[in-house]
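re the bet — no i am not wrong, look at it urself. input seq straight from the record:
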Amino acid sequence: MTNILHHTFLKIISPVTTVILLANFWGLLPYNSTGNLAQPQANQNRSSSGQDFEYISPPPDAQLVSVGTTIAIRPGEVIKADSVSRDFFTVNGSSSGVHQGQTLLADDQKTVIFKPAKPFVNEETVTVSVRKGLITAAGETLAGITFDFATSPLKPPWPERQQPNRDDTAAVPDGQNLGYVTLPVDIPAITITISTKGARAAGYLFLSNISGNTTPYLLIIDDQGEPVYYKKVNQPTGDFKKQPNGQLTYWDQSALAFQVMNASYQIVDTYQAGNGYEADGHGLQLLPNGHALLMIYDLQTIDMSQIVPGGVPTATVAGLVVQELDTAKNVVFEWRSWDHFAITDTTVNTTSARIDYAHGNAVEQAHDGHLLISSRNLNEITKIDRNTGEVLWRLGGKQNEFTFINDNTNFYKQHDIRSLPNGHITLFDNGNDREPPYSRVVEYQLDEINKTATLISEYRNKPDIFASALGSAQRLSNGNILIGWGNGPNSDEKAGWDNVRPPNVTEVNPDGTKVFELTFAPPNVSYRAFRFPWQGQPVTRPTLVVQTDGATATLSYSWNGATEIATYHIYGGAAPKPTTLINTQIKTGFENTTVITGLNQTPYYFRVMPIDRNGNETRYSNEVAVLE
């Protein structure tokens, strides 16, 4: 009777959009009065045997579960593959009925996954029974388990939450600042203001420009500001970087997925979220075991009037979901903020119609294998047990468990939490809630037993730079830090800059001395900035453009993405596909230019051949014919 009243009332309030009611006096609550998802005590007769499993997903009694979810259990020990049978799971939806599906053992040999053949339906209770019979490698037979979870509808992502904030007011810069004719005209202009040879770390810069009216590109550039590689993308992008496996990845907004490129810049893989979700573009981490970590913004309709005074009854609240995908793209781990964070832990206005209460912007594998997440709108770094999903500790924010040492200010609205091999962490502290606001990069030594966070180092620019959004900090191989200043160059907080544009990227050595600095033409910024060693071997042709003036031909040529070229051979002749070598040029930058005079016959054909550092021919450029 209670359930009937519950569902009937939901439909009366909103026939289209589900409203999650939060009325304590009904005893039906997915939330308590603080905005936490309530976790009812499990029926001991139904789930007492669940102690054999360290990880269950969705968690027993979970609310707001995706209708596209898979079901996973993990005992923490290796499972004998021949003990996994397709009839281990019995899954029954209160509205959708019995679900058939595929049962499989993930590549960790520990996680057993049930993939329903069809999605669940909105607002139903799903009962899962796992029968006894799984056998561990040690020979132990595991008990069964029965548990329930409740589904909830998904909404489309907020468009502005799938890409970094940007300035929508400025004009398109002149992309021809280098005078190159083989570059697109809308490549953003770049100025290098500091570049100290021998002090910089090795490698190229990886950037992705974003702004309101300029064309977004993936960019690899060298220390002189010369392009090495560019790729025009359809929509603003971010997190363009080299992964530990040597591949390149970037966020593809149009596909709501991360694309993977090989050393030839060919797309060879795609990472999307599992369990019916759409991925968020803040970051993808590929792990040494071939697994991937990504984030999701899970939008739900919540009656915030039952949580805070003045709350909107049909508020759209974005929760954070973190997933680990195995090599077959199975979800082997899922963590949801709904199960652990109160909505009222947020720093944003909880009386708004839209509440991005966590705003996850980074997930990182810690030095000990567990997970770190950065929740910008909580001012918090959280450590999560990779095996169980339990919260191990919370650093910063309203639920801070640590004492800060040597730091007279906490971090605020941070980005880019990263774990160092020695257990220290670095992050980009945006500093939004600081007065006056300024951004910095910090490194903390964490004592996870005594709960202390000791500031080991800090870099704060002089004069200050304030990035209200975006930003990154990368520890480089030589100990330097590469800082991406996010939207700082476009900030209104520019005290001390005297109409000079602040930098987009700065590299400093351990004593804080600047050894590299880069500035985009306004209004371009980069969500993050990275430096990596890189060798690119494109499969595309080199580009040749020929401009003529009477008997003189000016040849401009380049090979987008090629890093190993030493010289160019120029071929010319009166017949197509000329093989007569007429000139040789040492590669000097992204584009080389050669002037050929005394053309006394037409047509005349040109093509160029890049020669690599080992003296090997690569592939011919396009052919250009001078007709008169």
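see?? The chain has three domains: 18-151, 159-532, 543-626. told u. also The mean pLDDT is 89. so pay up
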